[in-house]
Amino acid sequence: MSRKQNILFFTLIIASIILFFILNLILGTISIPPSSIGKILFNVGDEPIIWQNIIWKSRFPQTITALFAGAGLAISGLQMQTVFRNPLAGPSELGISSGASLGVALMILLSGSIGGIALSKIGFFGEIAVSVAAILGAFAVMLLIIAISQRIKGSVILLIIGVMIGYIANAIIGVLKFFSNDEDVRAYVIWGLGSFSKVSGDQVYTFVAIMLVLIPLSFLLIKTLNLMLLGDSYARNLGLNVRRARLYVITCSCVITAIVTAYCGPIVFLGLAVPHLCRTIFQTSDHRILVPAVTFVGASLSLFCNLVARMPGMEGALPINSVTALIGAPIVISVLFGKRRNEINS
């Protein structure tokens, strides 16, 4: 694909991000005029206080969270697919999301049994406790995976072990659900559906600050990812320490997944679908193009999914995982069918 075509696609993708960002601020159960949105964001004029609260306390935090979460998950998915050379690898395949879910399950499902107080009723402090529990659970699994990766050479074996760790975590969660009361189980299930609206107040600034560090760090691994595409033997001959490189990429992917899961819940299909979509659009495996591409496409698709979940006229919002699955699964299926058709024709 020519450079002009790449520039055109990037321009269109960035334009879609701006469009979906604005629509996320405008549309909702209460429609706010675009002119008022601008005045509220730039703190000029005297707009109704209820509109200001809607923008600053709900829509803007939710929109900025969706943007960075989508970008992070897309980068994480690309890294995982490159390291394991598996088109079905995603951010959650190493059990990181399951680890975060287990941490939240231990916090939510045991809180009612041990303390007699459901975290879902504590409010802000309950949300902080859930986020901390998710981070601790995700990082515990991440450290375990990193330790295993230092002892195992094969990426496929490591991937299988990660999947098995996820099964173990889900089994423990199932046992906790069985012995928990209905209110705690409901609170956990709602968390597991995923939402960009959970990040509010000072949390959004912390989340954005962390992602502003992790996403640029991911760009430093572009050369490493390109070398890993050649295979271990060729990469080693070109001077790459394959084991160390794999450790860096897996760590970066796991940390991004852990942070997003802690703040937003386990978000599915964005990390799996976006890399496939970008490879199809740009017709390349060069990570110098793919990494920025998945960053922007992930942000755009995430904003679109959040917009669909909060369709105007609806009370509340749809579970974000339902929307991402409905949009992401057909993308993966169509891309895989397209690849199969090209192989047959060639």
Quick overview of this protein structure:
The protein has 346 residues and is mainly α. It has 14 helices and no strands.
Structure description:
The protein has helices spanning about 5-25, 35-40, 50-85, 95-115, 125-150, 155-180, 180-190, 200-220, 220-230, 230-235, 240-265, 270-280, 285-310, 320-345. The chain is mostly helical and about 350 residues long.
Model regions low in confidence, pLDDT < 50 over at least 5 residues: none
Instruction: Enumerate how many helices there are, as a single number.
Output: 14
Strand content: under 5%
| Amount of helix | over 70%
Structural key phrases:
346 residues; mainly alpha; 77% helix
Ordered list of secondary-structure elements with their pairings:
Layout: H1 3-26, H2 34-41, H3 49-84, H4 96-114, H5 124-149, H6 155-179, H7 182-192, H8 202-219, H9 222-228, H10 232-237, H11 242-264, H12 270-282, H13 287-309, H14 320-345
